[in-house]
Specification:
The protein has one domain (11-126). It contains five helices and two strands; from the N terminus they run βαααβαα. It has helices at 13-34, 45-51, 62-76, 96-115, 119-126, and strands at residues 5-6, 80-81. The chain has a two-stranded antiparallel sheet.
Length: 127
């Protein structure tokens, strides 16, 4: 059994980008259904540029933009190698409020995307 230990080496950019894009898509599905009629915009591109990432295409309300911004920063600074799913991580870096919001988003969007036939996202939730 391999123990998860903090590591100073950075995550692979492709894996980090995929994780951020997946989370952005989940949050966008949740936002579209739970916050209709609110003004939408992308997250601040400077946040992603500082992390060396492209800005996700998600159009989100202010509350969901804050959640995604928090997730981008926390995910890009994750010290774990290999990176576990956040729900299985021994060191939770998300603020408890954001952690609960991400749980709600994943639960709702996972079901919604599964009903649409997006099994690739369901597999992301499970593994």
């Amino acid at each position: 059994m391999q123990l998860l230990t903090p590591s100073p080496k950075p995550q692979t950019p492709a894996r980090l980008r995929r994780d951020i894009d997946t989370l952005a898509h989940f949050i966008e599905v949740y936002c579209r259904d739970h916050h209709p009629g609110q003004p939408v915009a992308q997250i601040d591109p400077h946040v992603c540029e500082k992390q060396g990432l492209p800005t996700p295409d998600a159009e989100l309300c202010p509350e969901c933009r804050r959640l995604l911004t928090h997730a981008v920063v926390k995910r890009s600074h994750c010290p774990m190698d290999p990176k576990p799913q956040c729900k299985h991580c021994p060191n939770h870096c998300y603020h408890p409020t954001y952690r609960q919001q991400v749980r709600e988003v994943m639960k709702y969007s996972g079901r919604k995307l599964a009903m649409r036939g997006r099994l690739d996202y369901v597999l992301h939730l499970l593994f």
